Amino acid sequence: MGSAPCRPVRAPRLGGTDEAYLLLECTVGIVAPMQVVVVLDDDPGPAVARDLVARLAGGPLDRAVRRPVVPGARPRWVRPPGAAQARVDPTPVDDAIAWARRHLGEAPLDVLGARGWQVATVALTDGGRAVSVVASHVLADGRRFVETVADAVVGESCGDADPVPEGTPRPLRRVAGDAADAATAVADAVRAAVHLVRGRAPDTPTSPPRRPAARSEEPASTPVDDAPTHHVVTLDRARWHAVAADLGGTATTLLVALGAGLARHSGVVTARGGPQSPVRLTLAVDRRADAHSSTANAADGVAIALPTDPTPDTGLAAARAAIRTALSDPPGDDALARVARLLPSSTLAHVIAAIPGPDVAVSQLGPAPEGLLAWRGTRARTVLVRAAARTAAPDLARRMLPGIAVWAVEHDDAITVSVCAVDPVARADLGGAVARELDLWGLRADVRAG
Fold first, then answer.
1. What average pLDDT does the structure give for the chain?
2. pLDDT confidence bin for 214, thresholds 50/70/90
3. What is the 3-state secondary structure (H, E, C) of the chain?
4. Sign of the dihedral through C-alpha 37, 41, 43, 48
5. Residue 364 has pLDDT above 60, yes or no
6. Smallest Cα–Cα separation from 358: which of 433, 308, 319, 306?
7. pLDDT digits (tens, 9 = 90+) for 294-317
8. Where does the pLDDT of residue 206 fall: very low under 50, low under 70, confident under 90, or very high at 90 and above?
9. Is 43 buried (19+), middle (13-18) or exposed (0-12) by CB count in 10 A?
10. Would you say residue 63 has pLDDT above 50?
């Protein structure tokens, strides 16, 4: 993952994927926080977190959303009110990963009324320090998020490069701007609707039909508002690449195989599609053509169906071919989000709730930017990146969100894989499931909750 300084978002209004995440928040109450965690070998002090906040403030991550005053117009980016502050926890902890998991769930994220990101830090009892940055997915895709944090660590402040307006325009100018954008958005939505309808024509190839979902067998004791379960594992980077290459794949293909195995053997595939259903997964793909983009989220997910589970015996060639096929026919450019903006909120809620989530989502971020690995001369021993879900309607989220999400980032001689189980059937023994899948591929490692 390369790192070039200061990646501003060039548009004053939200792009399609940005707005899709905002619609999830506003319509069905699903907030999607992302997290970067860096665990340092030594303790340079809490000032590293305060410095990071100062450099992030005013940059591409430091944005809030203002709703339009004219129906049909896109929401506009504005600066969040008040000054950003680092959260400095005073009591050292011995488990940085568990501490980071708590921050992932607790960080206040409000892109509509306040600030959608927070930096936290804590000293470790072994003499190190952990730093966590949590941000709403409305503000960035995973790669842009990591790169923005890395830029800030090395001292790049992007505030002057980012065109988000500081003040509030006069009412008449605001109405005129929204009216012009609404006119454009309506025409754009009509084109998007035509694209969607044509995409469902009978002669268009589709994914294999799914079997009716089996009735849930989850225990009655499982509360419907359980939070997702997280586990983290750090493996030898060279070994990961060697195993992938020996089996006819790549680092990404091996991560896809790991995610597919977790979805199958944890019961997610059976619960969502039946025991004979293929594994349905999405693979995050970077869609930006250059260093700058008109949307905060420049990544999308290509859909892949694996009717045959990849194993060390069968190798990774078939999965690699399926990924190549999916990449050759990428998804449309946020057509659904552009149509959704014009729907009444009640209709929109039903439309969003009817979209099923995949069995597993996979994000391979590649090498972490070098700037993320050294803080005031102190080297990072662990870097992890992940996303989660917060929701007021967990039963709805189970149908809409991936049953399992797998993220990976490489740093120095390690690769850190983070696994999040949203679907209840995968939560009870997630750590054991991760360990068994890694063992299957000859990648023994300690799996840690958090």
1. 83
2. very low
3. CCCCCCCCECCCECCHHHHHHHHHHHHHCEECEEEEEEEECCCCCCHHHHHHHHHHCCCCCCCEEECCCCCCCCCEEECCCCCCCCEEEEEEECCHHHHHHHHHHHCCCCCCCCCCEEEEEEEECCCCEEEEEEEECCCCCHHHHHHHHHHHHCCCCCHHHCCCCCCCCCHHHHHHHHHHHHHHHHHHHHHHHHHHHHHCCCCCCCCCCCCCCCCCCCCCCCCCCCCCEEEEEEEEHHHHHHHHHHCCCCHHHHHHHHHHHHHHHCCHHHHHHCCCCCEEEEEEEECCCCCCECCCCCEEEEEEEECCCCCCCCCCHHHHHHHHHHHHCCCCCCHHHHHHCCCCHHHHHHHHHCCCCCCEEEEEEEECCHHHCEECCEEEEEEEEEECCEECCHHHHHHHCCCEEEEEEEECCEEEEEEEECCHHHCCCHHHHHHHHHHHCCCCCCEEEC
4. negative
5. yes
6. 306
7. 578 777 788 999 999 999 999 999
8. very low
9. middle
10. yes
Burial class of 17 by CB neighbour count within 10 A (0 to 12, 13 to 18, 19+): buried
CA atoms lying within 13 Å on the CB side of residue 219: 6
Task: Specify the higher pLDDT residue, 74 or 420.
Answer: 420
Q: Which amino acid is at 363?
A: S
Its pTM stands at 0.86
Sign of CA dihedral 112, 115, 117, 122: negative
As a residue count, the chain comes to 450
Phi then psi dihedrals of residue 238, to 5 deg: -65, -40
Two tokens, residue 430:
């997630």
The pLDDT of residue 443:
93
Q: Give CA–CA dist 302/304, Å, rounded.
A: 7
- Residue 229 pairs in a beta bridge with 421
CA 408 from chain center: how many Å? Answer: 11
Cβ atoms < 10 Å from Cβ of 256: 27
Amino acid at 22: L
Note the pLDDT tens digit of each residue in 250-293: 999 999 999 999 999 999 999 898 999 999 999 988 776 644 45
